[in-house]
TrEMBL record:
Belongs to the glycosyl hydrolase 16 family. This is Xyloglucan endotransglucosylase/hydrolase. The lineage of its organism: Eukaryota, Viridiplantae, Streptophyta, Embryophyta, Tracheophyta. Keywords: Apoplast, Cell wall, Cell wall biogenesis/degradation, Disulfide bond, Glycoprotein, Glycosidase, Hydrolase, Secreted, Signal, Transferase. Gene3D superfamilies: 2.60.120.200. Glycans are attached at residue 113. One of its GO terms (molecular function) is hydrolase activity, hydrolyzing O-glycosyl compounds. GO terms for cellular component: apoplast. The keyword Secreted applies. It comes from Tetracentron sinense. Contains at least one intrachain disulfide bond essential for its enzymatic activity.
Length: 289
């Protein structure tokens, strides 16, 4: 349980007390929980399968997915993004219900940049088939210099996107106000590395420089804790799951402070305030919601 080191002893204890056998354990190796979905030749196991390297070159990008689907929980992994001149590359880490019509999806997309210019993290939330809820944040560190933890917490109260310990996005459950919230469909965990230089960097102005290829990204500490589906419906409804606990139903005071800091200093785009796209403010964006 190497990733538990970042917890305080108390939260670790609470976590252990709340442990239930239906919750999947932390995988030791990539292939225990994941499989390659795109371009086998471009994903290499390293460190005995406890880490992987993704490759993007002119022949192909690549991708992987969890073998199972989960209803509520938390997924996290450590990622070291493409270094140097990564303009035009996109690394995605997301959950997806894999249903065409009424898709639910929670996205992290890392948009590369020219050497020395900041990576952008775009997040999006699809609920009951509707997305178009992009937000963009500039990272306050170089995500290619070292591994950082990216996680998605998903419970009955909200969805929170974290970069290390810092919440960068919160999507609350406002079903009571008629706002859709992903709740009914299990989601799988996915990641891809690909080329999208028609839109990724400065809106597509900066093209990928293939003379810098191959591009590499690294992943480790794969951690999925959630209710595996198909499985007993009672698991997802169980308020004793640690991710449903009172500490996870809203941001802690410390998290709320960090979130405010991100909102003030690092948000570079928010669909909520994009009047040309949304002359009428989307309901989930209204103050007090
Ligand atoms: C890349 O760097 C430019 C200049 O600093 C910045 O405007 C842009 O938001 C950065 N990110 C992307 C993905 O274009």
């Amino acid at each position: 349980m190497a990733t538990s080191l970042r917890y305080s002893a108390l939260s670790l204890l609470l976590h252990l007390l709340a442990f239930s056998p239906s919750v999947s354990a932390r995988p030791a190796t990539f292939f225990q929980d994941f499989h390659v979905t795109w371009a086998d030749s471009h994903i290499k196991q390293i460190e005995g399968g406890r880490a992987i390297q993704l490759v993007l070159d002119q022949n192909s990008g690549c991708g992987f997915a969890s073998k199972g689907q989960y209803l509520f929980g938390r997924v996290s992994m450590k990622i070291k993004l493409v270094p140097g001149d990564s303009a035009g590359t996109v690394t995605a880490f997301y959950m997806n219900s894999d249903t065409d019509t009424i898709r639910d999806e929670l996205d992290f997309e890392f948009l590369g940049n020219r050497t020395g210019q900041p990576y952008t993290v775009q997040t999006n939330v699809y609920a009951h088939g509707k997305g178009d809820r992009e937000q963009r944040v500039n990272l306050w560190f170089d995500p290619a210099a070292d591994f950082h933890t990216y996680s998605i917490l998903w419970n009955h109260h909200h969805v929170v996107f974290y970069v290390d310990e810092v919440p960068i996005r919160v999507y609350k459950n406002n079903e009571a106000r008629g706002i859709p919230f992903p709740k009914f469909q299990p989601m799988g965990v996915y990641s891809t590395l690909w080329e999208a230089d028609d839109w990724a960097t400065r809106g597509g102005l900066e093209k990928i420089d293939w003379s810098k290829a191959p591009f590499f990204a690294y992943y480790k500490d794969f951690d999925i804790e959630g209710c595996p589906m198909p499985g007993p419906a009672s698991c997802a409804a169980n308020p004793a799951n640690w991710w449903e606990g009172s500490n996870y139903q809203q941001l802690s005071a410390m998290e709320a402070r960090r979130y405010r800091w991100v909102r003030l200093n690092h948000v570079i785009y928010d669909y909520c305030t994009d009047k040309s796209r949304y002359p009428v403010t989307p309901p989930e964006c209204l103050a007090g919601i």
